[in-house]
Structures are given as structure tokens and as C-alpha cells.
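Table S2 (text version). Query chain:
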Amino acid sequence: MATTTAPLENTARNPLPGPETRPAADVVIYDGHCRICTGGARLLSRFDWTRRLAYLSLHDPRVADRYPDLTYEQMMEEMYVVDPSGKKRGGAPAFRYLTRRLPLLWIVAPIMHIPCSMYLWSWLYRQIARARYRFGKVEACAGGTCKVHFK
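Corresponding C-alpha cell output:
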């Protein structure tokens, strides 16, 4: 009998604010079963002094209700940021967007906005995203379904 643990984003010790708590915020959709992704979301939350971000794990049923046009496969490949107007950015463009939204990330904004550099940032993001389950412990993966990420 396989046991699953609660997704990391639901831990009581430091819950991330959801869109219900911050309705006017950009929503960061991340993999709540991945330690690297959850750690990144928590880091963003600590950098978010101005409370501009809300968070949802892609495994949360609210994601499918709120963003039916995003497929599970898309969200497993990269994090998404959805702004209040509904515009969606994924992967490196999402991180680039966040460098303009969070004052503590302004220091990396010039690097992320070097002309013609998005190809490099996107490639680098994809490499890290593909390997995230190899480097970070998978927390809640029922029946070994996360093995697909070890290709």
C-alpha cells in the first residue's frame, strides 16, 4: 500500500498566501510536490515585502477551476505567473516578469533583460525544471507517477 504525504505547500509551519487571501495579486503556480519548486515559492514569498504575489500548487484543484486553459503537462514543465488581468507567463519569462515586480529581485532584472538573452534563460530554465525531481526529493507522489520525470 503506497502512502502519500501532504503536499509541501499545505504544511502548517509556513503556509503560502493563496489567491483568496490576496485577490489583487499575481498568482504563482508551482509544483507543490517538488522540494525545489516549493523552496523557490517560499523564497519568493520572503522577497515579497509588498504582498504582490499569491501562490497555488499546480496539484491544487482550484488551479483547474481558475485556469482551465493551462494543461497539467504545461504546468509540470514550468511555473506560471498569472497577473490580475489574466495574462499568463511561464518559465523564464515568468521569472523575468517577477524581477520587475519584486523590489528585492530588481538587482537581477538588468541581467534578465539583456537583449536577445531570453533564449539562453529559457534553455537554462528548462534544464533545471527537467531535473528538479532528481535533485529535490519528491514529497507527495502517489503510485510512483513522478517517475516520468526521470527520463
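Notes on Table S2: The helical segments are 35-47, 61-66, 72-77, 91-101, 109-112, 118-135. The mean pLDDT is 83.
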